[in-house]
Amino acid sequence: MTDIPGGRTSRDPYEPELASFRETDDQTAPDADSVAKTGTTTVGITTEDGVVVGTDRRASLGGRFVSNKNVVKVEQIHPTAVLTLVGSVGGAQSFVRSLRAEASLTEKRRDEPLSIDALATLAGNFARGGPFFAINPILGGVDDEGSHVYSIDPAGGVMADDYTVTGSGMQLAHGTLEGEYDPAISIGEAETLAARAVHAATERDTGSGNGLVLATVTEDGVDIEEYDDAEELL
Q: In CATH terms, is domain 54-233 a member of 3.60.20.10?
């Protein structure tokens, strides 16, 4: 900046322009209480024959009001893979649509199916670089290498495990899985265990409830079933 007569200043055209940062006005900032959130408990379990993913069906506003009792929080994003919806409903739905479209486009370009590991890496890249609000999904799938479960954190971290849990009821569900998971578990036993873990969370977590959705993924494809009460499978 240079001084000119009259007390004004003239900007050097070659000087870098620095933006000023101001706190967002309360009237324009998103109201967290008005954002529909899945709250949720989502569980992913690997078996030798496939993957089982279980979730509750409740969406809430600000964690205090149940806005929907029939949310299907598992969606197929690949012929042999599913992703859960965790966090804000809008952000999670947008993430699922974007990942499904990019995975399909990538497969068409390469003329070969994506491995689940590659799909998880793609999901992590999307989470880290995209405008998706407060998501923490589980990716479960089957490929030539076997059965896989990954948790995707909001910063784009990708972690594989034999089983994993995300959502507001994760501590309660984890306790159930820790005591009962066995690497030799069958698909049927994994479905019962996922139902038990989700049910345990809904007993104490106000963000989780209103039944159960179970997705079973094998090399033959994806099957998603809804239940009004998790106890139906216990």
A: yes
